[in-house]
Every structure is written in structure tokens, then in C-alpha cells.
Amino acid sequence: MVKVLPFEEPIVQLKSKIEEIKDYTATAEVDMSTEIENLEERLRKLEIEIYENMEPWDRVQVARHPSRPTTSDYIQQIFTDFIELHGDRSYGDDAAIIGGIALLNGNPITVIGHQRGHDTKENIKRNFGMPHPEGYRKALRLMKQAEKFNRPIICLIDTKGAYPGKAAEERGQSEAIARNLVEMAGLKVPVISIVIGEGGSGGALALGVANHIHMLENSTYSVISPEGAASILWKDSSLSKQAAEAMKITAPDLKQMNIIDTIIKEIHGGAHKDLETQAQYMKEAIIQSLRELSKLSPTELVDARYNKFKQIGKYKENASN
């Protein structure tokens, strides 16, 4: 059974009413086709009204939906001949990061992404999409391999953040993330990152130093979760809705601030409503990005990436007295 989000309840109730009337007309000798058509038109208008005017907290809930497609789901839909590669050649393999080589319209690429689970058992295996240092080192190994063989890199971001546990810190979590930031900045092949769910803190940024950054319409990208921000700012995590609004973590906000390049639209209700259609939207965005980036030389790719991040943010200088 698909989880119903609070803001979707009016839609679900109206759909239920329509189904009740249809069931009734199927057994009774009553023509209610006009009433059904009117209700279905009302439903279409209601869906447009709700889904096109979602609040930031609504988008946070959609980004966290348990049925939202994961990296592996998109890999199966967008690419062909995927070969998963494991391990960081230093400590071990991290199931919270998956990656390998695949074909996109017959051309080889490297694809890497955070991987969550669809149920409790898989989430435990994937550590709920929160990587340890070996996950980021595996990702960097695959990126350097892609650079060696001149393959574009596609990163899919979906994590609450890097795992904050004791073992992760002992194995160098901060250093692993910092190393990825430095090395990604200098990669001489096209790098494209897409936020497909939650993009949380440095754990997301470790796959986010890209030439082009895209976000799905209902994904989020932030330095901290709304609950964490509310706890710090107001000592009350129940104020997470207000925090989500203040933090500007949604795709429209980040696009307006020029932090991301493109918003990839989602069908009404979210990506989990139609995986195949959503994957097609993403594939079109990836192809368009590769078409643009293929025109740049290795040096131009590095310079463009550097300038992109250098220009993020605004500041004012006070006149000296």
C-alpha cells in the first residue's frame, strides 16, 4: 500500500468518492455519468492546485517518501549493460554507495550514487543511504578510473548525510569527504550530479562537485535537515516546517540562487508515481548536459567547474573608514 502524505488527503478522499459512485452505478440501474465526469474534472483541478503549489515541507515529505525511486531503480531504467564495481581497495565495500560502468545510448559512462533501501531489511544493509568513508573512497576510485578512460561521470545524490558513527570517524570520514571535493574539482571529464531525493550536508556534496547540477522537482539539498536546523535555531525540532521554509532547500529556491542548473520536472504526486516517465525526464536532462559539456576541452571543463562554484553565493564589502 502506497503511503499517503498529509497534503494529498483531499485528493485521496475525492478519488475514493469517485470509485464509490462508479461501483454503485455498476450494480444499480442508475446513470450517474454526468456526476462522475464533474467529479473527475474537479479532481484534475484539485491535483493541479495542490501539486503545483506545494510548500517546502510538502516537498521534504515527497523527497523522503518510502516508495521514491532509488539510484539502482534509475540505473536500470536509464542505462544499459550496467556492471557494478565494489570496494575502495583500502578497507572494504560500502553498500550505501553503488557505482560502476554502463552504457547510455551505446556510449560508456560511469554512474555512481547513494543507495537507500525500499524496506527495513534493505535499509539496514544500505545503512539507510548514509555512507561510511569507504563508500566515498569507492566513489573516488571509480571517478579516477572514469577520468583515465575518458568516460563522463553521472552522480545520483540521495542521502540524509554521511554516517556520523564512531567507526566512520575512526576510519576518516571527514578526510574522505574532503578528498572527494578536491579531486572532483580537478576531474578532466564531464561530471553531472542529480539530486534525486534528499541531498544532505557534506555526505551529498561529496558527490556534488559537478559541471552541471540538476535536481528533481521535489528533492531537497541542504547543509542540515529541517529538524536539525529547528533544534539548533529554536531548540524545538517540531518547528521543522518553519525551518524548511527559512532554509531555502527546495529546487525552485536553489535554482533562483543559481546553486543548481536545472530543475527536472516530476509528474504530479512525485517520482514514485511513475518511475519510467521520471527516468525518461532524467535521461533527457543527462543527454542535454553531455551534449553541452562534450564541446569543452579537459582544461575548460575544470575551469568551468571552478568558476561555477566560485560564483555561488553573494556578499557585500563594507567601505573602509
From TrEMBL:
Acetyl-CoA carboxylase is a heterohexamer composed of biotin carboxyl carrier protein (AccB), biotin carboxylase (AccC) and two subunits each of ACCase subunit alpha (AccA) and ACCase subunit beta (AccD). The keyword Manganese does not apply. InterPro entries: Acetyl_CoA_COase_a_su, ClpP/crotonase-like_dom_sf, COA_CT_C. PROSITE patterns: COA_CT_CTER (PS50989). This is Acetyl-coenzyme A carboxylase carboxyl transferase subunit alpha. GO terms for molecular function: transferase activity. Component of the acetyl coenzyme A carboxylase (ACC) complex. First, biotin carboxylase catalyzes the carboxylation of biotin on its carrier protein (BCCP) and then the CO(2) group is transferred by the carboxyltransferase to acetyl-CoA to form malonyl-CoA. It comes from Psychrobacillus faecigallinarum. It comes from the Bacteria. It catalyses: N(6)-carboxybiotinyl-L-lysyl-[protein] + acetyl-CoA = N(6)-biotinyl-L-lysyl-[protein] + malonyl-CoA. Its EC number is 2.1.3.15. Pathway: Lipid metabolism; malonyl-CoA biosynthesis; malonyl-CoA from acetyl-CoA: step 1/1.
